[in-house]
Amino acid sequence: MPSLKQMKDMVIHEVTYFERHNNSRFTVTSRNIPRWGTWINYFRSVPYLYKWSREEEALLPKHYKDRCIEFMRKEQVPVHWRPIQMKYRFDEDSGERIPVVNAPIPVIFPKECNLGLWGGEGIIFGYYKKNVPKKKHKLPTLPRIWHPMLNKSVLYSEILDRWMAIDVTPRALFLIDEAFGLDFYILKTHEVDLCSKLGMTLKREMLLTLANKSFYPNDTVKQEKIYNKYKEFIIPAEEAEWIGLSVDEAVEKTKKLNEAMNPTKPLKEQYLYDLCQKFQVEIKH
């Protein structure tokens, strides 16, 4: 169990302490809280936000706003920690049954994660305490930063028929292999777990290509094969073109669509039209 100072730091100052574990890279000790109903004051970091004013809300379509709200409310799949499945634990000293609180580790997603595929990984700031049995005196608790290991990999998209050099993490490569390809990984993974603007841009391009059936125009056999392979992900093109857009881009797109549907007429043309109508009425009389 953490000391009183560590517990205070975890609850008040949002500090996370780690210790070694045999089955994983690290495990957090702050998930067992001695008091019932006590939650660690943690924040959820996201690589980008969806915020709009009331005027912008009236312009944006409903399906776009629903996707944005779902992204901001949905919890990410645990990547840097393992939730405890049991609901209660027994205190070693008193034997009291205490509820187990699964508190996610605070993870920082920098802007650079929008330029690659990190597989949900981020940067963690915390403290690390070494355990050396041979030494009699206790070693101090040291600060440490855990950051993902990035590699430049060349990936192929079957739908887009394109090779791309992307910064990825080993976890992202494992997830791509687990999904049997980049296309399945991008299309199956939720926006919360992608945590990447690049990933959402690729998803928008893939969905638009599937909706318009604009892939492999010279090979009809392969086009039908790819279409049947990914047809479960097909959505209307009117919705696909909004996926992954920021609020500013979505508002600008809405304004352009409104201007195209209701074009503004210059006043000089309107005045000229009114003047011609007036002359025609005078000639008739």
Question: Layout of helices and strands, plus pairs?
Answer:
Layout: H1 4-12, E1 17-19, E2 27-28, H2 54-59, H3 62-73, E3 88-90, E4 97-99, E5 124-128, E6 142-146, E7 151-157, E8 162-168, H4 170-178, H5 182-188, H6 191-194, H7 197-212, H8 220-229, H9 237-240, H10 247-261, H11 267-284
Parallel strand pairs: 1-5
Antiparallel strand pairs: 1-2, 3-4, 5-6, 7-8
InterPro entries: Ribosomal_bL28, Ribosomal_bL28/bL31-like_sf
GO molecular function, one term: structural constituent of ribosome
Keywords: Ribonucleoprotein, Ribosomal protein
Q: How would you describe this protein?
A:
By secondary structure, the chain is α+β, with helices and mostly antiparallel strands. The chain is 39% helix and 12% strand. Helix 4 crosses helix 5. The longest helix has 18 residues, at 267-284. The radius of gyration is 27 Å and the shape is elongated.
Descriptive key words:
single chain, 285 residues, four-stranded mixed beta sheet, Ribosomal_bL28/bL31-like_sf
Q: Strands of the biggest beta sheet: in what spatial order?
A: 2-1-5-6
Low-confidence stretches: 16-43
**Main β-sheet, in a few words?**
4 strands, mixed
Q: Based on CA inertia axes, which overall geometry fits?
A: elongated
**How many strands?**
8
Q: How many DSSP helices?
A: 11
Protein name: Large ribosomal subunit protein bL28m
Keywords: Ribonucleoprotein, Ribosomal protein
Family: Belongs to the bacterial ribosomal protein bL28 family.
GO cellular component, one term: mitochondrial large ribosomal subunit
